[in-house]
Every structure is written in structure tokens, then in C-alpha cells.
Amino acid sequence: MAIEDQAVLEAARAVDEAKKVVILTGAGMSTEAGVPDFRSQNGWWKQIDPRTVATTEALEGQYGLFHDFYSFRIRSLGDVRPHSGHAVIAKWEKQGKAGAVATQNVDGLHQAAGSRQVYELHGSILSCRCHACGRPAAQGTFLDKEACPCGGKLRPNVVLFGESLPSGAWDMALNRIERADLVIVIGTSLTVYPVNQLPYLTKGKRILINMETTGEENRFDLVLLGKAGEILEAVDRSRGQ
Ligand code: OAD
User: What pTM does this model have?
Assistant: First the structure.
């Protein structure tokens, strides 16, 4: 039996034995659906400096560039659909196995696959508001580069560098992770604070599924290197049910 198969079997056994699984995902969860991540070879931050597009300074001082970046990302999500790995996670929730998904992703793919308990730690790119007065705005109004009736600049409801995380989502994710007996971390470089601390706040087991090593491997009970969708499907197939 290959080592990879052994790891898949071990992960399946851990899922079977756990009562409260929490899933924590990053951009690598979405790449198989066609959404680029940030720090891989084809990632956004290899092509563009995040300070020029993903900060409050960029929004306030370079709105043209900020707007181009986010409208491109919103438009490219048009025909993106969740993949089989999202479906496995949603299925585990329906079975009462997975209690929550905490995600750094803003693309709504977990919800599109049917997951209901999703905590969006970096917000959502699918809805918009005025940066000045906070009033909700239609996505089309943002894409048309219109201003808010108050004159303020419109923006998607994502967390920009320099902003705090939505406290409701953070508190719920933290609470679920603290009480989980298994946390499965998927597709994240674990570089962005404070979400990168969440895996270590559980008393439960920790499994990491990622395409490449992150340097955090020794802090996990089990590591599976490869594509999230393929690995989740294999783990699900290997479960005893
Ligand atoms: P990163 O791009 O930093 O890391 C994605 C990780 O997923 C990398 O380690 C890849 O190797 C891995 N990966 C890629 N495709 C994969 C696949 N098919 N299966 C498994 N793993 C795969 O993305 P995040 O860690 O999510 O924040 O980045 C965290 C935050 O940094 C983002 O939410 C965003 C960014 O700046 C903000 O914009 C505030």
C-alpha cells in the first residue's frame, strides 16, 4: 500500500471517529474550481503587489486600480461552480459529521455546494457596500463604478489588509474550533494572521491537506499533500460510514 493511500485511510478513520469536525479552508480549496489562489506560482500576489489593490490605502488613494482588481475577480466568478471537494464537505455537514466551515475564501463556493454553517473570515466578494457610510450597494452599481448616494466609494464586502475581521464570523469560528475534536485545514499557506493561528486553538486532532508544504507540517497529526478535491473524494470513499 502506498504511503498516500495509508494517509487517506488514516484521515478517513479520523473523520469516522470524530463527532465534531470543523473545516478551515483557504484559496487552495477553490483552485480546482478555476479560481486562482494568492501565493502559488499562478497566484495573484505573484503578479501584483497586494498593497496596491487590497488595502484601505489603495481603495482611498488608487480607486481605479482597486476597482479594476475587484471587478475582474467578481466577473471571473460568473461561471465558476464548486467542485467535488466542496460537495464532500457539504455532505459531511448534512450527515451531522462536520459542524462548520471557517473559510478565508470570499467566493461563496462552500455555500453554493450546500454548506450552511459557513463563517467567512475575510468577508464576501459577492456583496458590496459604501466604504464611507456602510450602506449596502448592488453589485452592479459597484461594477458600473457608480458612487454611493452619499458620494462615498463603493467596495465589495471583503476584508482588506489593515481592517479587522468580521467579529461575528471570527467568534463563531473560534468557538467551533475550540470545541472540535478534529480540525481539517485545507488549501492555505497559513501565512495570514490571525486565521493562521486558528488551527492551533483546538484541543482536537489536526489534519492538513495542501498542495505543497507550508512549514507548519510538524504541528499537524496528519498531512496529505495533493489536490484538495481529489483527496477529499478519496477520504470520503474510504470512510466506513
Ligand atoms: P495562499 O495563496 O496563500 O495559499 C494557498 C495554498 O493552497 C498554497 O499553499 C497552495 O499550495 C495550496 N493549493 C493550491 N491549490 C491547491 C489544491 N488544488 N489543493 C490543495 N492545496 C492547494 O491562500 P490563503 O492561505 O487562502 O486575504 O491566503 C490567505 C489570505 O491571503 C487570503 O484570504 C487573502 C490573501 O491575501 C486577503 O485578501 C485579506
Answer: 0.97
